[in-house]
Specification:
Layout lengths: L1 E4 L3 H6 L1 H13 L3 E3 L9 H5 L3 H15 L4 E4 L2 H10 L7 H8 L1 E3 H9 L7 E8 L3 H6 L15 H6 L3 E5 L15 H4 L1 H17 L4 E4 L2 H13 L5 E4 H5 L2
Parallel strand pairs: 1-2, 1-3, 3-4, 5-6, 5-7, 7-8
Helix pairs in contact: 11-12
């Protein structure tokens, strides 16, 4: 299958290793991956700041750039959720509907489209999973604690295939890290306290590496980790699955 790879702005600018790991991982499971050089932002930052009308040309550009691909894959739950749910403000055309339906978060794509059963990967470390709000409650990549039903996690399922990974149990497995995009700018004190609480939970349980499918959450926590000189690392889940 041919995949159009969409890399979010912050990964492109600050965490290119996560983007490269995503590409290599998709190729490893048998996909033909194309990175359209004309791609830009998905428009989420503008929309979240109340400027959705200004974001519409960005939405249109995304649809035009990726409409040719069988699947569109992105290593970010928040960007995928925005495309899936909020591109409804565009004209109700088959092209727009198709792009929204064919855009997948990385773990969702690996589990439900590719059907990955094994990975030739090794990462000997104690790993704590951070479930982003958009990924967990928007895309249903895992089981939220407020919901009745069977417990599941796409990240846990995929990481269980990596030799040497010891998944760390947490007290609050689905608590927000406090990033929330522009929320962290508008409410810095509250955002910081929420991030400190998440990091403390990992520290209590001996986490060595915090991983997530949303690099934006990890970026927020990494800022606190570096500032407070905490002995923790953050890595996008693609980097571990591709190790």
């Amino acid at each position: 299958m041919t995949v159009g790879l969409f890399i979010p702005c912050y990964i492109d600018q600050f965490y290119p290793k996560a983007g490269m790991a995503t590409l290599q991982l998709l190729e490893k499971v048998g996909c033909t991956v194309v990175y359209p050089r004309d791609q830009t932002c998905c428009g989420q930052p503008l929309a979240n700041s109340g400027m959705e009308q200004e974001a519409r040309p960005i939405y249109t550009h995304f649809v035009e750039t990726f409409s040719q691909f069988e699947y569109i894959v992105c290593p970010s739950g928040s960007c995928v959720y925005h495309i899936n749910q909020h591109y409804d403000v565009l004209e109700d055309s088959e092209e727009v509907k198709s792009v929204r339906d064919r855009t997948f978060e990385l773990a969702d794509f690996l589990v439900n489209v590719v059907g990955v059963k094994e990975l030739n990967a090794s990462f000997p470390a104690r790993v704590g999973i951070h479930n982003s709000c958009h990924g967990l409650r928007g895309l249903r990549l895992g089981h939220g604690s407020e919901r009745v039903g069977a417990d599941f996690s796409y990240y846990r399922y995929l990481l269980s295939m990596v030799d040497g990974v010891e998944l760390v149990p947490l007290d609050r497995v689905d608590e927000c890290c406090g990033f929330g995009g522009t929320f962290s700018v508008n409410q810095p004190e509250l955002s910081t306290k929420m991030g400190q609480d998440r990091i403390a939970d990992h520290l209590r349980h001996g986490t060595e590496v915090i991983t997530s499918g949303d690099m934006s959450c990890l970026m927020h926590m990494e800022g606190l980790i570096r500032r407070e000189e905490i002995p923790l690392r953050v890595m996008h889940v693609a980097e571990i699955l591709n190790s």
